[in-house]
Design a protein that fits this description.
The chain is an alpha+beta fold. The chain is built from 20 helices and 15 strands. The longest helix has 76 residues, at 425-500.
């Protein structure tokens, strides 16, 4: 390998296990090691410790000059120091190295440099290969402690004269690495918040007139400027200088180091809009002051506040001027049982309807001492609503106020209740009067009903008698018609027929013939009337039917009955319907002749 590096198990001179060496061999190696250390270029003339058990600097000691200084640095240095060979053999380790690795010096020497380094990190071999001859190199490397936990160390290789021995100086930078990683994560987190915030964020320099050093994307969207334009404009370019609140906020920040408030800013298109500003000063790495300023557009919130304010005024006006009384009360408990309640809010109508004045902060027992005795059901409902939250409605009479009230009780907070009520005494009086009137009216209706029932019974009897008389009259009429028709056929027509067979003069024959024809006509008319009446025809319909049967047309029938042609057509239609031939192609005259 280049530079004479011999890793473990290579073809170079292999290190001998210290446990297999004799004491003489170890002493000889130690003397050689001291001579090599003395040749590291330390200042001449230093007195060092000898080998024969003497203390450093003793008289007659033949140790090389500078050894005592080097040994002191080796033993008491804060950094770990390993004395190693190119093949990775560790010849010596100072106490700081033992503390760093959690191993004894013998364990470190037995493990060797390659065993201490993390196998997944190849930088150790690469650093040794790239080191300058007789010089030094520095880099970071991963190592393992005696319990196997990894850590990062900053490594410095110092090659001694000849290049076949090294000082390996290690400094544990795990804490620094964790701090750097934490700082990097923190920077990434805050950078992400800076870039993705919905609020505008500016980094400003207060000593240079509010110079803007950085602006996030939200600021660019909010104001319509690019970050470069912000840097040119500065803080003054986006502030409404007519707003006195901006000066007060800057003064507060200068005094306290931070400030929060509302002010007006200006967009690129010149439109002004309200903002909420939070600004804080901090020290930069370079030592000068910077400020972080967060701006939130509160235009919509201001509109919402105005709307809310208008609604609040509206409902406040409604509350104060409503005709119904309103009260908000807090239930008072003792041993988890409701015993009283206190008024916290009441409107003007409450005093007008109840006559109770200055009720805020007072209990009901202070205002009406016997309330629990006179209105126990009302207090029970109040308690139930305050505990369950279920609304209820009820009416009650309050003797202390001598009035009837209707209550609507509800709750938005456990232990409290609100009630809206109205005085219904007039309504109750009207209901009582109406009830009395209804009772009197019902009594009169019952009396009148009895009278009507009696009259109805009398009328029913009269109707029955009349119906009997009418039925009897109709029957008598039918009997009379039948008797007339029968008498004509049996008593008169036979004699007329006999008279026709006698010798009569021509004139008499004509008269008898006419008389016979008319008598037959009279007899047949009675028969037709009886049959047509059975069909439910009216007298006019029977007249029209007789004329149709005799062959008269509509115009002739209208002239004879002195009616219009449309009226005759109407009767013809009714005749066809009543004779069940309305939708049949049957001649009406033929049908009438057939049923005659």
């Amino acid at each position: 390998m280049p530079g004479g590096i011999v890793p473990p198990n290579s073809s170079g001179r292999a290190a001998v296990n210290d446990l297999e060496k004799t004491r003489e061999q170890l002493i000889a190696e130690l003397n050689e090691l001291r001579r090599e250390i003395a040749g590291a270029g330390l200042p001449a003339g230093e007195q060092c410790a000898g080998e024969n058990g003497g203390e450093p600097g003793a008289a007659g000691d033949d140790t090389p000059p500078g050894y005592a200084c080097l040994r002191s640095l080796f033993e008491h240095g804060l950094d770990a120091v390993l004395f190693a060979a190119p093949d990775g053999t560790v010849r010596a380790a100072n106490p700081a190295a033992c503390a760093m690795f959690g191993m004894s010096e013998k364990e470190i020497c037995r493990t060797g440099l390659w065993g201490l380094a993390a196998p997944s990190d190849p930088r150790l071999v690469r650093a040794l290969e790239e080191r300058p001859g007789g010089g030094s190199t520095r880099y970071e490397h991963r190592f393992r402690r005696g319990d196997g936990t990894p850590f990062t160390a900053e490594v410095s290789f110092v090659a001694l004269q000849g290049g076949n021995k090294y000082f390996v100086i290690l400094r544990d930078i795990s804490v620094r690495k964790r701090a750097e990683e934490s700082l990097r994560e923190s920077e990434e987190k805050y950078r992400s918040a800076f870039e993705n915030s919905f609020d505008a964020i500016f980094l400003t320099d207060p000593k240079h007139g509010g110079l803007i050093r950085a602006a996030n994307p939200a600021a660019c969207r909010m104001f319509g400027y690019s970050e470069e334009e912000f840097c040119r404009l500065g803080r003054r370019g986006i502030l409404d200088r007519t707003d006195p609140r901006s000066r007060k906020l800057l003064e507060e920040r200068a005094r306290k180091g931070w400030a929060r408030g509302e002010m007006t800013h200006i967009r690129k298109d010149g439109t002004k809009f309200p903002t909420e500003v939070t600004s804080a000063a901090f020290k930069a790495k370079e030592g000068h002051d910077l400020c972080i300023t967060i701006i939130r557009d509160i235009s919509e919130r201001k509109l919402d506040e105005q709307t809310l304010r208008r609604r609040e005024q509206h409902y406040r006006s409604l509350f104060e001027n409503m005709l119904n009384a309103f009260a908000y009360c807090k239930m008072i408990f003792e041993n988890d049982q409701p015993v009283d309640f206190e008024y916290t809010t009441a409107n003007r109508a409450f005093e007008d309807l109840t006559g109770l004045k200055n009720v805020i902060g007072k209990r009901i027992t202070d205002l009406i001492p016997d309330f629990m005795e006179t209105n126990p059901e009302a207090f029970e409902i109040y308690s139930r609503v305050a505990l369950t939250g279920h609304p209820e409605r009820f009416e009650t009479y309050m003797p202390a106020l001598e009035a009837w009230f209707i209550f609507s009780v509800y709750s938005h907070e456990k232990g409290c209740f609100a009630t809206i009520f109205d005085n219904i005494s007039d309504r109750k009086k009207a209901e009582a009067a109406l009830k009395l009137s209804n009772e009197e009216l019902e009594k009169r209706v019952e009396e009148r009903t009895s009278e009507l029932k009696a009259k109805t019974c009398s009328l029913e009897e009269l109707n029955t008698a009349l119906r009997v008389l009418l039925d009897r009259r109709e029957e008598d009429r039918k009997n009379l018609e039948e008797a007339i028709a029968g008498n004509l056929r049996s008593l008169i027509l036979p004699y007329i027929e006999k008279l026709q067979r006698t010798q009569l003069s021509p004139e008499q024959t004509v008269f008898v013939s006419i008389l016979h024809s008319h008598l037959l006509e009279i007899a047949s008319q009675f028969a037709r009337k009886l049959s047509l009446r059975n069909l439910g025809l009216t007298p006019t319909e029977m007249q029209v039917a007789a004329l149709i049967r005799d062959g008269k047309d509509t115009k002739c029938i209208a002239e004879m009955l002195h009616v219009s042609a449309k009226a005759v057509e109407f009767h013809r239609h009714n005749l066809r319907r009543k004779l069940n031939i309305a939708n049949k192609k049957e001649n009406l005259r033929s049908h009438l002749l057939a049923i005659s």
